[in-house]
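Just wondering, can you check both lines?
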Amino acid sequence: MRGLIFSMALAAFAGAAAAGAADKPISPDAWRALTAGKTLYYYKDGELYGREYYVDDTGDVVFRFPNGLCAEGRWAYAEGKYCFAFGPELHCFHHVKRGDDIVVIGEDEGDEQTVERIVDHEPLSCARAVES
């Protein structure tokens, strides 16, 4: 029995290591080329988590949650991670390719978001719409 449990644990560990080994980090230059002037749609557990517009290749971003909450900020790459500053708050992630998917992994909690769509010419703004 003990041997069976050990074998199952070893197999689970090997599977997890293989999944992590399949993650290929996305370089900052590749990320800029992929995102500049585009809006990315992030999904978590199959649900839309939010949309993020990369204004250009200088690091300005606008993030909007599905409930309308919005923040403007900047991103930078350092020490193998992408960090986004929205006001005084800093959020850091690892951006990887996992097969054909782009996965964003939170540095603190390890939560994952998948980029499901990348759209050209769909800028976001935190400004309120002008009503007439």
